[in-house]
């Protein structure tokens, strides 16, 4: 039996993920069941996907196409699919109204929705720290908006240097300000723990803030329209862009040859 231990320095023990690559199982306690018939499913795959320019396209004003939603919903009948996005909940669900994923990791990992449960993934002191950040942005005259937890800075043209309790992630010309240690990767790990998932994890994205997602998954996949730095890290680069790339990926993961090619066994 071979175990992989993933440890993130500086984080709590809850971010230790033990993956058993020989006998993969996904066990959901009855009180946390997101599909009533799901209690133990073997050989499962969890896809953690970015939203903008990954599931959805800028050409469609970032609305998720019906055929993409249908493919993801079908995939969720036998596997797990998490949407991991920097967007606020209200906008994410508006743009993906027909999508029924296993769960949502929103605001860049700050909020998690799993099994009807909402988890705020930020420290208590962030409320005070965020007020300091807001005051500083106002003093600089920067254009920003507020999510439930994080702060969005639009069209940023300078590097932001903030207080020690806040971190900044850049994504295609915009910036997101959140607590130190909160990002797509730590949010995904929290979601995995809530699901009691122990299977193959695949992360797919397009932008700079998806590097943190890549840090914590077994297989890293980039859509064809991803930024060069993400493609360089990817185990596999899809031939198609946006939602068409997601459909391509979901068809690929059904093939054992795809996993064998990447040297991953179920």
Superfamily (CATH H level) name of the largest domain: HAD superfamily/HAD-like
The CATH architecture name of the largest domain reads 3-Layer(aba) Sandwich
- Return the average pLDDT rounded to an integer: 84
The first-level CATH class name of the largest domain: Alpha Beta
Query: So how many helices?
Result: 8
Query: Could you give the count of β-strands?
Result: 17
Class per helix and strand makeup: alpha/beta
Percent of residues in helical segments? 25-40%
Query: End-to-end span in angstroms?
Result: 13 Å
Order of helices and strands: EEEEEHEHEEEHEEEEHEEHEHEHH
**Uncertain regions spanning at least 5 consecutive residues:** 1-42
Per the CATH scheme, the topology name of the largest domain is Rossmann fold
What is the strand arrangement across the widest sheet? 9-8-7-6-5-15-16-17
**Strand percent estimate:** 25-35%
Described by strand count, sense and barrel closure, the largest sheet is: 8 strands, mixed
Overall geometry: globular
- Number of domain modules: 2
Alpha-carbon Rg, integer: 18 Å
